[in-house]
Design brief:
It is a single chain. This protein has about 60 residues and is mainly alpha-helical. Helix content is about 45%, strand content about 0%. It is elongated and about 70 Å long.
């Protein structure tokens, strides 16, 4: 019984762990990989316009 209580206590205390690492970012600097799209910006805008018009016709 004592072992179960100790194990339960250890489990409950381990759930209180919080990672304190801080990531510093610079404003305006994107550090991710370059987005690659199959369509050009104009083609994507046209697709979005068609999708919008197909569901917003009742308004």
């Amino acid at each position: 019984m004592r072992l179960i209580i100790l194990m339960l206590g250890a489990f409950l205390l381990s759930a209180c762990y919080e990672d304190t690492d801080v990531t510093m970012h610079k404003a305006g600097v994107y550090k991710g990989k370059e987005d690659s799209h199959a369509l050009s910006a104009e083609e994507r805008a046209e697709v979005l316009k068609q999708r919008f018009n197909s569901v917003q016709t009742d308004r």
